[in-house]
Amino acid sequence: MLRSFASKRSLQSLLHHHYRRCRQNPQFPIINPRPFSSSPGPPSSDAELRKYIGYTLLLLGSAAATYYSFPFSEDARDKKAQLFRYAPLPDDLHTVSNGSGTHEVRTRAFLQPESVEELEGIVKEANVRKHKIRPVGSGLSPNGIGLTRAGMVNLALMDKVLSVDKENKRVTVQAGIRVQQLVDEIKEFGITLQNFASIREQQIGGIVQVGAHGTGARLPPIDEQVISMKVVTPAKGTIEISKEKDPELFYLARCGLGGLGVVAEVTLQCVERQELVEHTFLSNMKDIKKNHKKFLSENKHVKYLYIPYTDAVVVVTCNPMSKEKGPPKNKPKYTAEEALQHVRDLYLESLTKYRDSGSPSEPEIVELSFTELRDKLLAMDPLNKEHVIKVNKAEAEYWRKSEGYRVGWSDEILGFDCGGHQWVSETCFPAGTLSKPSMKDLEYIEELMQLIEKESVPAPAPIEQRWTACSKSQMSPAYSSADDDIFSWVGIIMYLPTMDARQRRQITEEFFHYRHMTQSQLWDQYSAFDHWAKIEVPKDIEDLAGLQARLKKKFPVDAYNQARKELDPNRILSNNMLEKLFPSSEAV
How far apart are CA 448 and CA 455, in angstroms? Predict the structure, then answer.
């Protein structure tokens, strides 16, 4: 299935394109206008004067005609400038953007095969023609790692469960199946996935290839659940790899960023389906330090949500429900309505301050969830530190009144409402072992909080901290050869609660200042590296060179590039991001 897309081009780029084609193909005439020339003659002061008066009148007339022909609205100065459109965009041109609305491309080539055979044909033809077909999943990666305007292949129509081995708790699926769909289809066999990320809409191929993770110091990232894969490669066709069959390539390709082949089928190691008891409570850094080792070792799943400019730390633990004790008998102290009341009060108060009497009526406040209320609050003044602090304090109060227990199946409990459009940066770094945590994870947070306050960053909540065991996938940020190593993952965030282009641009600039601050002050000190779905390519050449050097210290970049050369010599599965992160030695 082919869908069309094409990028807007300026007039200048069109002329440049025309000139280049002419140089390459003699059938295209080269337009090379020469300057006018005239034979010298006697000077005439009257003629010169009339000439310049004529030029002046022509200029003034053109300016007036332009002004009255293209009137600007009063808010035009706040609107985002658009490239000159040389012609209406064709009907088959579409825009593909990521879930956060922070990255987008236009392309005509968006292929969706329905079978492995069809996928093989697409990859083979693209390789012969040297046409890009970058693998893209659900498009949920905050950095748009799967996007390219040159062309994409998406396996959304390859979404079947192929086989279930109930005894060994294994399932083989097509890589385009979404996490929630997979979980729903295998629950009748009494099995489920070992862990989950915050959301359930990812395709299995995508969530594995970027090394996504859940939380739990005994549980590795999701790529560790993969025990074999069927991969369609441009140079070697369809290959099957596993721990037993070509283990070297298997451990390299399992978290392969879509650069070594299109993952068509995956066999996953599952676990018994269990009900979990989630416990949410409010703590502080002093108590966290006292209990941190116990929290990591005694809970199957645990995460901390820090709220900048407050001492509040939200602790969320999840553990299998005891068959003997049953669900907890504790009743919540506050109702859901009471927990939201303080946030609603701040919203109404802020409406009075930031909106005039002529503002359009707001939707019924009772219909808004907490994250919707937070988005609306932040949209009023997203970069005003004092306003953000008020919102953060209201969030701390919301969590204080939301303390309690919740019981549900793992796929229902282990999720998190991340909010709306946002910029996010997440890093992964070593945190010792489960038996002997280094406490570097808490030191990182303390330094981060100090930086935020020192630099007066309008940092919203939460700063999320999670843990995983190590991965044996060589390209995973949590890779380690030591079985007992644990890793901490810390995410910072800035929401984009408005569609106003000027305001989104300002938030974006502030976020990248925030991100750069954490990178320059903390990352090298703690050996922290980006989550692959959240890494951003620097525009500055020196910063890019520094990033490339850092990646080479952590990851087997040479081995990865060699595998790309062997499996995808024409780089049809690559995009601009991969080429900049992992330049070949020839390119360097």
Answer: 11
Q: Which residue from 314, 316, 307 is spatially nearest to 283, judged by alpha carbons? A: 314
Q: Find the DSSP H helices in 529-581.
A: 541-554, 557-567, 576-581
Check: CB of residue 199 under 8 Å from CB of residue 180: no
CA distance 532 to 394: 32
Q: What share of the chain is helix, strand, coil (3-state, %, to 5)?
A: 40, 20, 40
* DSSP-based three-state secondary structure for 197: coil
Q: What is the dihedral of CA 99, 105, 107, 112, to 10 degrees?
A: -20
Measured CA to CA, the distance from residue 319 to residue 324 in angstroms comes to 14
**CA triple 497-498-500, angle to 5 deg:** 155
Instruction: Output the pLDDT for position 91.
Output: 67
- Rounded CA gap, 584 and 588, in Å? 6
DSSP-derived secondary structure for 465-517: EEEEE-B--TTSTTB-SSTTEEEEEEEEEEE-----HHHHHHHHHHHHHHHHH
Ordered structural domains, the chain, with CATH: 94-154 (3.30.43.10), 161-274 (3.30.465.10), 282-323+330-532 (3.30.70.2520)
CB 388, CB 292: distance < 8 Å:
no
Report pLDDT for 417: 73
Q: Vertex 507, ends 503 and 513: CA angle to 5°?
A: 150
Give Cα 483 distance to the centre of its chain. Answer: 28
Q: Is residue 43 predicted with pLDDT exceeding 60?
A: no
CA distances from 263 to 175, 256, 329, 571 (A): 6, 9, 46, 16
The number of C-alpha atoms within 13 Å of 204 and in the hemisphere containing its C-beta is 32
Rg (CA), the chain: 28
The model carries a pTM of: 0.83
Tell me the residue length of the chain. 588
Structure tokens at 554: 């952590």
Nearest one of 577, 566, 581, 587 to 261, comparing CA atoms: 566
Give the residue from 319, 289, 309, 290 showing the smallest Cα distance to 441. 289
Dihedrals phi, psi of 408, to nearest 5 degrees: -175, 170
Specify the 3-state DSSP secondary structure of 307: coil
pLDDT digits (tens, 9 = 90+) for 182-215: 999 999 999 999 988 877 788 999 999 999 999 9
Residue where the block lists tokens 């952590």: 554
CA gap 396, 374 in Å, rounded? 12
